[in-house]
Amino acid sequence: MADPIPAISVKRLCKEFDGHEVLRDIDLDIPAGTTTCILGPSGSGKSTFLRCLNWLEIPSSGAVFLDGRRVGGETNAAGKVTVNRRELAETRAKIGMVFQHFALWRHLTVLQNVTEAPIQVLKRPRQDVETQAMAILEQVGLADKAHVYPHALSGGQKQRVAISRALAMKPKVILFDEPTSALDPEMVGEVLAVMRSLAKGGMTQVIVTHEMAFARDVSDTVVFMDGGQIREVAPAKEFFAAPKTERARRFLS
Amino acid sequence: MTAWLSAIGIALSLPLGLLLAIIRWRRVAVLDGVLAGFVSLIRATPFVTLVLFIFFVLPSLGIELKPIPAAIVALTINTMAFSSEIWRSALDSFPRDQREAAEACGMSEFQALRRVIFPQIWRSSLGPLVSEATILLKCTPAIAVIGVVEITRAASRIGAETYEPLPPFLLATVLYTALIAVLVRGQRYVERRVANRYGYVAP
Amino acid sequence: MNGVSILWESRELFLQGALDTLTLVLGCLVLSLPLSILGAVLMNESGPSLKRALRELFDFLRCVPFLLLAYVIYYGLPELGVRLPPWWAGLVSLTLYNAAYLVEIFRAAFNGIDRDNIEAAQAFGFSRLQTYRRVILPQAVITAAPLIGNQTITAMRDSAFLMIITVQELTFTANFVSANHFSPFAPFAMAVGLYWLMSVSIEWVVGRMGIIRRSRYG
Hints:
- The structure holds three protein chains of three kinds.
- Chain A is α/β, with parallel strands linked by helices.
- In chain A, about 35% of the residues lie in helices and about 25% in strands.
- In chain A, the strands form three sheets. Chain A has a six-stranded mixed beta sheet with strand order 8-9-10-3-11-12, with helices on both faces.
């Protein structure tokens, strides 16, 4: 069977905003080397869930484990969260993230965007990082844009840079928050192609998306969320062929 | 005294500033260039320097001025230059179609300015103008210079020896600060009022 | 004695005065930039009570007429046992005053930065300090540059007030020369011209930075 320790493991995760419950009792294991798509109607809490995985949103209770090590801090009985900032930063460095609106640092060139975190956070030597970054940019077909500033790129190019930026950290997992939602239709393909090749290469990916065809063809597992809860977890082929729950059936139709 | 000087300065400089702005906005030949240079010069000149200039130079041109009128002239020229920039940016950003609508109704240019443009731009310019007024208020202590300047060196020496210079200055500081704080509060209040009533957002 | 010869005779005084003004403004900029950045970061990061105290302090400084602030510092510091020559007292007051305005400029610039640019830094494991140093500040300085330029011109104009506490800057020089020669026009015109030159230079620098900024960041 698969690796005994899952890449990401979520235990009884809850999240409230001002007394309003957004996520309820979420349990989920994500095996290493797999691609998982999180689907669901808007407002189902899937983006919030993704952002809880690297503690960009601090969960109200519950825990997230990366390779068996706890992410973020402790939640005591009173629901008070204590965060060890340094440990959290160390863990986050192992989790890549790709944002809906790219979130490229606009004062840095493409190459600098990719090398910034490995140099600053991982303290790796500049020379190494730059060589590696150029290799990654080559892979995603943007080596010729290395010294351009992000504003001069198209949306699809920006998102490929954002993926390169995540890859340069050699992360255990990459989280994608609706990576193609802000793109013009003709640019969606180039971004999905990069993610597809990552999946083939055995990268662990967690993807919140509305791209059904992509989820069906590329992902190993589909997680279906609705109303702040996980309603269904199934291999992608099974989920699309025969969803078990009524909600998922309605969502797919 | 301070309040009076400031009030007169404001009363004179706002319309004059508007006049300058309109001249520059209409791009009156030659005058436009001259005024642009004038405004740029005044905006670079420290207020103290301007006060001294007017107080000392005008008499040599045959115009005798007592300190108070000299102060008023200096305040007015200074604030006129700054407010003309505020008016001008308001005029420049005034929607073209509104002006065309006025012309289409057969209004003369002056009528359009008076009935359509001015009632709108004074509201959008209010915030910057009031903050200009607080700056003017902050400049007024400089007027003391023309009374004091010959004895500055003496004063500092006396202050060091016998006379205690700190308490009066502290008192003056408190008074001024209170006055300006009131004006700043007032400005925020007026901005909110205008924004609520006319849907203008303070820039 | 005509104006030109007066100016020629006192050229060294004017050079010295202009230099004094220039060093005051530059010194003030060098000191107040880090000070105001620190102030803005403190206001962003501190708890509600410290934040409130800081806001009151900066609001207060912005309401004080600069001349009076300079007086109070010049005459007040000796009372506290600190004796400063006029130039240094002037620099201290100019720096404090200018910093109060710059804090506000930097705070607005911090708030203007895209939320997700900062989140991306957090997600990649940047510490708080690294986030400020590598992401927030470089962007804030770029967006605030024109306002910092304006504020620098204001500081230059304010520096003339310091003649009253006998700092021998440009206006002091003009006044001194005109008193010595009983001929006010030329010295003051010269001072105005030099101020104008400095302010045009500052605007030119800001304009250049604006061109570079637009070509890079759109």
